[in-house]
Specification:
Two copies of one chain form a homodimer. With 183 residues, chain A is an alpha/beta fold. Chain A has one domain: Dihydrofolate Reductase, subunit A, CATH 3.40.430.10. Chain A is 22% helix and 32% strand. The relative contact order of chain A is 0.26.
Chain lengths: 183, 183
Amino acid sequence: MNQIASVYIATSLDGFIAREDGDLDWLTAANKSVPEDEDCGFYAFMKTVDALIMGRKTFEKVLSFGKWPYGDKPVIVLSRNKLEIPENLSRIVSWSSESPQELSNRLAKKGAKRLYIDGGITIQRFLSAGLVKDLTITVIPVILGRGRPLFGDVKHDISLRHIVTKAYDFGFVQSTYEVEDNA
Amino acid sequence: MNQIASVYIATSLDGFIAREDGDLDWLTAANKSVPEDEDCGFYAFMKTVDALIMGRKTFEKVLSFGKWPYGDKPVIVLSRNKLEIPENLSRIVSWSSESPQELSNRLAKKGAKRLYIDGGITIQRFLSAGLVKDLTITVIPVILGRGRPLFGDVKHDISLRHIVTKAYDFGFVQSTYEVEDNA
């Protein structure tokens, strides 16, 4: 399948993507030290993305931002239960309860070459299914102690190939890895 | 107190320092791709260390290596219960059930300026006690899914200052942080 699924996410040094209640206050606070014209490669990454896949919790968090950050890219929200999509997003956001493999296959047939996988549980499901090709993780210099972890259990070790690391003046460290087992 | 406590440790990308049973096979395997003359700064770091502090599990792991890796640096092993120290190490290894603060104070009076804190639980105890000054973490490009985590819960966020990151050709990424709250 000529399709790439990518992770692009920020974590605390101890590997959390949000507090237990989903709060991103620590990330918002850290972002205050980031120059306005610096997006840590997000725009360049997004240009390569054909569709986004995220879980319900992440979707609801993104909605709470007020401003929709993904332009008119198709977004598929994974949820067991049917989801209400706000009217103004109904053209670009859709709900699915497909498995990662089913969804990837369907999107591949529609020509989606690069998928952006977002949200802890969704990332873990795609990783476990062997569908993630690369991960770009931006480590924020803070230890939270508890929260929602980026990674969960996996059936066997996942070997990675380190591609590049960039340390920013404001203390963020961004590393990109490719999954080795998973050509 | 004119004393620095430092962490210098390797973790998987998902933040584990050992498998659940303490096994370091993944680290041993990764080290096979490291050139023989490359120690990722360990020797230079060790030259600045006056004493090592570790927990019982880490001590027993180190004993299992066969070769004692710390020369004649004083090593204090923290354990609630009294520990048998092998005869050949009795001059340099001692057992203590002191709290991190008590031990730090005692060693400071003896002139120990830099302490090397090792092992997950011991690191977590020193972090929680606000005694860790800097952390050097070498991220190995593998996801384990489960194991003994480097970090545990903390009472409040610990803000860090990123000092330096080095990405090695063989895929290890080593970052040094200083704890901000903790001058």
